[in-house]
């Protein structure tokens, strides 16, 4: 039996490790801090920078807590129903805050807005912050979008006559095809892995560019052509794409030369090797250059335990200097007018230029993030990924897939009664799937 | 025998309460949730689960892994146990090395294997240095499903054979030497002694190891997620996706109940197939 002793020790060690891990994980109770609940800056590195850099100079001690987007509504409403809310400040995207306004979980911020002097907040974004009502329900916090980045080695393969700042999806396919022909490798990449933001590519880029809509035109003949064309393009896409989460990694390792992703998820590549990469707008389709500006806003929860402190934090986070600090730390762009300092990191400058070009493109077609889906947002995203999986990865006929998925789309819209959002034409009731 | 009164029950009570509150209650809730939709009884969740495009893949993948990995692990662990019986010097060191994977979390193990099998990973580096490939070769994509399955199986073998081995080793150490010695005296070959004496005596340990390992294999999650991601759905990863990604708790509950039903069925099969005679029970 003596021989078994090392074993017991190893078990004991494993158990001790588990317990220690659990102890370290348990959150420390810090009741006096303001709780800032955010669906933004979730990736651990961004959250850490938020805590250690951006919030370091905040006027009130803040506990920055992140939450998955589909769970934000459940979380906030559960706190309100419990009668003792914990979170005071809520940071989320327009479409995530909207359902909370519907259930009266957001406090009006007109007084807070009135006290914000010395800053010019983008007026269109400010108007959107009323969420269709007369009172201000969120104050714009920061913005971002999705762009494309290419390794400079890919540039010689651009199709003749193509302007990298005004590409079409056809030219993108030719470009990737040229690269495969000459190098034998598929070097175009998309973030289609489990943690990637691929659904946004379909919702805000591909669908608007090809069909001029997302929900209304979901199963239109245009959509059928789009999927057929995208399936052809996929022949030049790195098959590891279904594992990619953040495209900065395969770009840096050279597994991919051309990639689409959220600016913040490309920043590492641009910042570390600004001389190796170029950033440029997403391609255009027959209906325009669909793109999705993403605006995050700050709201105060109704009945917040620290409403006054939350207002102070809003004032702090919208200061021009803090907005620049936010840009430098986490690559989300300012929503207030700022003097872009010359010492901006060259990588950030590349990204900022690409974003500006996208907005200024003559064929630019702005898409909103899905609005009003609340908890069903995840299922809505899945619908696009399922369509992608069936048509592109499994080669099922697009028509049949679209009809099938169209039914699922109808069910989600019927359950949530969500009205159409841009670029779909407005609807009086729930958005119709035509 | 002295009557102990209420004391044994009192001592047992906390653990029963602990499991009851934190296991049985959620279990019943999950089972109820799986059969409800919008507050009424319904099979809607089950229809949506079975109708989903990943369902069939998840079932096939999960069963493939279990049916391949569990027998291999048992064979390997039996071999390791038998070999270790004949080792005198350095036995403790071998034991330690063989049980290293026990101390590693399955997600960490998955990431280790990802570092080996990824495009710029150790395997490709080695193959490249040996001149067998000319550039990065993708192993873990939807285009190479068999290699992906093989990768997951190898990784699972590495990670979880140790637990089977530990259980079998404990069983072997309890076996009386007399039976084997008697068989040897009567002229049984080593092979006959293994099949006719050792293996039947090991049945209780083998049963425990098989039940434990099979149930855990049906619950495999982190390894499939780390290596396969979207390309290798398994039952538990689908439950996770429906719960957290799609926020449909009903379908997630259906998956959970399905995994539980499969695990119970597997356990019952082992209990019957490897029935341990009453006189051999501890």
UniProtKB/TrEMBL annotation, chain A:
InterPro entries referenced in this protein's UniProt entry, alphabetically: Bact_solute-bd_prot1, SBP, TAT_signal
Main localization, broad class: periplasm
Keywords assigned: Cell membrane, Lipoprotein, Membrane, Palmitate, Signal
Signal peptide: 1-31
Gene3D superfamilies per UniProt: Periplasmic binding protein-like II (3.40.190.10)
Top-level taxonomic group: Bacteria
UniProt xrefs under PROSITE patterns: TAT (PS51318)
A GO cellular component entry from the record: periplasmic space
Compartmental location: Periplasm
Family membership noted in the UniProt record: Belongs to the bacterial solute-binding protein 1 family.
The protein, known as: Carbohydrate ABC transporter substrate-binding protein
UniProtKB/TrEMBL annotation, chain B:
Top-level taxon of origin: Bacteria
CDD domains registered for this protein in UniProt: TM_PBP2
Protein topology in the membrane: Multi-pass membrane protein
Keywords of the record: Cell membrane, Membrane, Transmembrane, Transmembrane helix, Transport
SUPFAM superfamilies per UniProt: MalF N-terminal region-like (SSF160964), MetI-like (SSF161098)
GO cellular component: plasma membrane
Domain ABC transmembrane type-1: 59-270
GO terms, biological process: transmembrane transport
Localization (cell): Cell membrane
UniProt xrefs under InterPro entries: ABC_transporter_permease, MetI-like, MetI-like_sf
Pfam families named in the record: BPD_transp_1 (PF00528)
Membrane-spanning ranges: 58-81, 93-116, 146-170, 210-229, 249-273
Sequence similarity: Belongs to the binding-protein-dependent transport system permease family.
Designated name of the protein: ABC transporter permease subunit
Origin organism lineage: Bacteria, Pseudomonadati, Pseudomonadota, Alphaproteobacteria, Acetobacterales
């Amino acid at each position: 039996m003596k021989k078994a002793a090392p074993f017991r020790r190893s078990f004991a060690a494993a158990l001790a490790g588990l317990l220690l891990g659990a102890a370290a994980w348990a959150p420390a109770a810090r009741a006096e801090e303001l709780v800032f609940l955010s669906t933004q800056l979730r990736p651990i590195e961004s959250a850490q920078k938020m805590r250690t850099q951006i919030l370091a100079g905040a006027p009130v001690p803040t506990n920055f807590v992140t939450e998955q987007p589909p769970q934000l509504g459940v979380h906030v409403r559960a706190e309100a129903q419990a009668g003792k809310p914990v979170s005071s400040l809520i940071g989320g995207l327009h479409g995530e805050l909207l359902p909370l306004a519907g259930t009266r979980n957001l406090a009006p911020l007109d007084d807070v807005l009135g006290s914000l002097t010395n800053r010019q907040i983008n007026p269109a974004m400010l108007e959107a912050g009323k969420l269709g009502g007369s009172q201000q329900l969120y104050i714009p916090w920061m913005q971002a979008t999705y762009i494309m980045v290419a390794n400079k080695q890919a540039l010689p393969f651009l199709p003749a006559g193509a302007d990298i700042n005004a590409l079409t999806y056809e030219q993108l396919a030719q470009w990737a095809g040229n690269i495969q022909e000459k190098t034998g490798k598929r070097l175009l990449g998309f973030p289609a892995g489990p943690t990637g933001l691929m659904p946004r590519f379909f919702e805000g880029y591909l669908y608007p560019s090809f069909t001029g809509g997302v929900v209304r035109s979901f199963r239109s003949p245009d959509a059928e052509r789009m999927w057929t064309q995208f399936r052809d393009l996929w022949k030049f896409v790195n098959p590891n794409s279904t594992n990619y989460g953040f495209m900065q990694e395969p770009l840096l390792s050279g597994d991919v030369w051309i990639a689409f992703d959220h600016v913040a998820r490309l920043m590492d590549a641009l910042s570390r090797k600004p001389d190796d990469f170029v950033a440029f707008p997403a391609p255009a389709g027959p209906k325009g250059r669909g793109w999705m500006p993403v605006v995050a806003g700050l709201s105060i929860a109704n009945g917040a335990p620290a409403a006054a402190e939350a207002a102070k934090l809003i004032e702090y986070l919208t200061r021009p200097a803090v907005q620049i600090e936010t840009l430098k730390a986490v690559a989300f762009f300012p929503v207030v007018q700022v003097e872009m300092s010359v010492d901006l990191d060259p990588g950030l400058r590349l990204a900022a230029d690409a974003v500006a070009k996208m907005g200024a493109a003559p064929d630019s077609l702005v898409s909103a993030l899905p609005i009003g889906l609340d908890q069903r947002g995840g299922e809505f995203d899945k619908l696009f990924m399922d369509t992608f999986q069936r048509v592109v990865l499994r080669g099922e006929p697009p028509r049949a897939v679209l009809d099938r998925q169209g039914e699922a789309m109808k069910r989600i819209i019927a359950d949530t009664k969500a009205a159409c959002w841009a670029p779909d034409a407005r609807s009086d009731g729930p958005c119709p799937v035509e | 025998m002295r009557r102990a009164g209420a004391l044994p029950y009192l001592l047992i009570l906390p653990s029963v309460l602990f499991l009851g509150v934190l296991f049985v209650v959620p279990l019943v809730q999950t089972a109820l949730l799986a059969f409800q939709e919008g507050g009424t009884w319904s099979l809607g969740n089950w229809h949506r689960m079975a109708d989903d495009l990943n369902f069939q893949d998840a079932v096939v993948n999960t069963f493939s892994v279990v049916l391949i990995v569990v027998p291999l692990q048992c064979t390997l662990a039996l071999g390791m146990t038998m070999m270790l019986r004949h080792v005198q010097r350095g036995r403790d060191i071998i034991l330690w090395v063989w049980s290293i994977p026990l101390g590693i979390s399955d997600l960490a193990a998955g990431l280790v294997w990802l570092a080996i099998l990824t495009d710029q990973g150790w395997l490709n580096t080695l193959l490249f240095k040996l001149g067998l490939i000319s550039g990065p070769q993708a192993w873990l994509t939807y285009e190479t499903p068999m290699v992906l399955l093989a990768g997951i199986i190898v990784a699972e073998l590495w990670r979880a054979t140790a637990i089977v081995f530990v259980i079998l080793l404990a069983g072997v150490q309890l076996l009386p030497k007399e039976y084997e010695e008697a068989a040897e005296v009567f002229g049984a070959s080593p092979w006959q002694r293994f099949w006719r004496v050792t293996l039947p005596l090991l049945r209780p340990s083998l049963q425990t190891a098989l039940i434990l390992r099979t149930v855990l294999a049906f619950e495999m999650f982190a390894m499939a997620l780390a290596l396969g991601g979207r390309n290798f759905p398994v039952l538990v990863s689908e439950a996770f996706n429906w719960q957290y990604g799609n926020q449909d708790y009903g379908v997630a509950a259906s998956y959970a109940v399905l995994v539980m039903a499969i695990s119970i069925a597997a356990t019952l099969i082992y209990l019957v197939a490897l029935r341990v005679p009453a006189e051999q029970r501890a």
